[in-house]
Specification:
Blueprint (H helix, E strand, L loop, with lengths): L10 H12 L11 E6 L9 H8 L2 H4 L2 E6 L9 H4 L5 E4 L1 H9 L4 E8 L4 E6 L14 E3 L5 H10 L8 E3 L5 H5 L4 E5 H11 L3 E4 L10 E7 H6 L1 H20 L4 H8 L5 H15 L11 H13 L16 H7 L2
Parallel strand pairs: 1-2, 1-3, 6-7, 6-8
Antiparallel strand pairs: 3-10, 4-10, 5-8, 5-9
Helix pairs in contact: 1-10, 2-10, 2-11, 8-12, 10-14, 11-12
């Protein structure tokens, strides 16, 4: 997959989502709103634009919901609040949720926001390193969470771990200084930060080499799904309306983020949203849609990389029940 903006090719899909969701507008009575807590995967940013839009535009209120967002971060446990009932929903990566399910935690994905993982490998423009085969003999800055992705990608092009060196201690600026030749990061932020620092980057996507991951999956517990099916539909329906708005109005996202993070750089957040569009709205199907074959592939990748050693039933990691209900499928 070569990730590009799909502004024109996906317009009809976005409009169909808008039309489909608008037919499901809830007419709630004046009864008290149901409180819902969403555990975010990171600090307030454009990464959560659709949730903010659903909140600010009254989509949650129209469904009789009062949603509270709890910030995440590098040291925040994103699963425990959902598992112990402190939060009703959470956001997590595909890898962490598959391993959690294998560990016996009753987490289940109900929608996927980032249907293409923003994770990628970066090199300096002009370095001549533009594909995984060019990593041979080079030093790579790779965070521990990314090692399975690196291993799978390199295996797919026939390169073994002894043909490159991994450095997990440096930060991204080591790429600028020449300490490392390749660095891992996120398309949604690293490109913008590098540009501000005066550097242009080559981007190497694992997706282009057969390693498909998804991120910012909305998850909850098996028990919550079983006992609150109507609430599930209401929350997801409003959330998808919010994401439809965010996709159709990326230029308004910076100002929206500032409402939740007054210190945010509105212009930067707007740019982040623009870079996120093809990751969220892939043009393949509906916003938030879960593709079973992607989850099967992730499970196989993790097992091949010895990250996943326990048995897990892939079809129990997610459910399409509510998306199918919302989209009439």
């Amino acid at each position: 997959m070569k990730i590009q903006a799909h502004n024109f090719t996906v317009l009809l899909l976005v409009l169909s989502v808008t039309i489909g969701l608008s037919t499901c507008v809830s007419t709630r009575s004046s009864s008290p709103s149901t409180p819902i807590t969403l555990q975010l995967s990171w600090t307030h940013s454009a990464q959560f634009a659709g949730f903010y839009a659903a909140d600010q535009n009254g989509d949650y209120a129209a469904e009789g919901l009062a949603v509270t967002f709890v910030e995440g971060g590098p040291d925040v446990d994103r699963q425990t609040p959902v598992l112990n009932g402190t939060a009703h929903f959470g956001l997590g990566g595909g890898v962490e949720l598959i391993t959690a399910r294998a560990d016996g935690k009753p987490v289940r994905v109900v929608a996927t926001i980032l249907r293409r993982d923003p994770f990628a490998f970066f090199t300096l423009a002009g370095s001549g390193i533009t594909r995984p085969e060019d990593f041979v003999g080079k030093t790579l800055l790779v965070r521990p969470r990314a090692l399975p992705i690196l291993g799978a990608m390199m295996a797919n092009v026939g390169i073994s771990p002894d043909q490159y060196t991994v450095n997990s201690r440096a930060d991204f600026t080591a790429l600028y200084s020449g300490e490392v030749d390749v660095a891992t990061g996120f398309v949604t932020t690293q490109v913008l930060e590098a540009k501000r620092a005066g550097y242009n980057l080559n981007i190497i996507y694992p997706d282009d080499y057969g390693v498909h991951m998804v991120s910012d999956n909305i998850f909850t517990t098996d028990d919550f799904i079983t006992t609150n099916p109507a609430l599930m539909t209401r929350f997801l329906r409003a959330t998808l309306k919010g994401w439809t708005y965010a996709i159709e109005n990326p230029d308004r996202i910076g100002a929206l983020v500032v409402k939740y993070n007054p210190k945010a750089d509105a212009a930067l957040e707007t740019d982040v949203m623009a870079l996120s569009l093809p990751l969220i709205n892939t043009g393949e199907d509906h916003l938030g849609w879960i593709k079973p074959e992607v989850w099967t592939g992730m499970e196989q990748t993790l097992r091949a990389q010895n990250v996943l050693t326990k048995p897990v039933q892939v079809t129990e990691i997610y459910t399409l029940q509510f998306l199918q209900e919302i989209y009439g499928q």
